[in-house]
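User: Can you help me understand a structure? I only have the sequence.
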Amino acid sequence: MAKLTTEELLDQFAGLTLVELSEFVKAFEEKFEVTAAAPVAVAGAGGAGAAEEVEEKDSFDVILEAAGDKKIQVIKTVRELTSLGLGEAKAVVDGAPKAVLEGANKEAAEKAKAALEEAGATVTLK
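Assistant: Let's start by predicting it. Here is the structure, written out as tokens:
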């Protein structure tokens, strides 16, 4: 098997949805016993529109509309719901309205919405 270049790997990741990237990162972390929080944020930024391809209503995007008064709690909740590091989670909260989860199933989307609203955020599901 030929070794892929960094550019070829990046091209492959660019074609994945955020859900697929999340699953890859979890498998990567388990196999190599590492934490890959920063690469998730970099890859996630490039694939932000990927979940829009899903038209069925068994897939939802959790959109953070506003952080509210408890911004720190909202950042902590975003970190719990994703594999983002502190800086990346803060960027999501500061950049609201912004997608926190994309392509999530109904149960996961509703749990995420409830957790974010409990932290003081305004959230919508699309």
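Now, to help you interpret it: The mean pLDDT is 78. Helices lie at 6-14, 18-32, 37-46, 71-81, 86-94, 106-118. Let me know which part you'd like to focus on.
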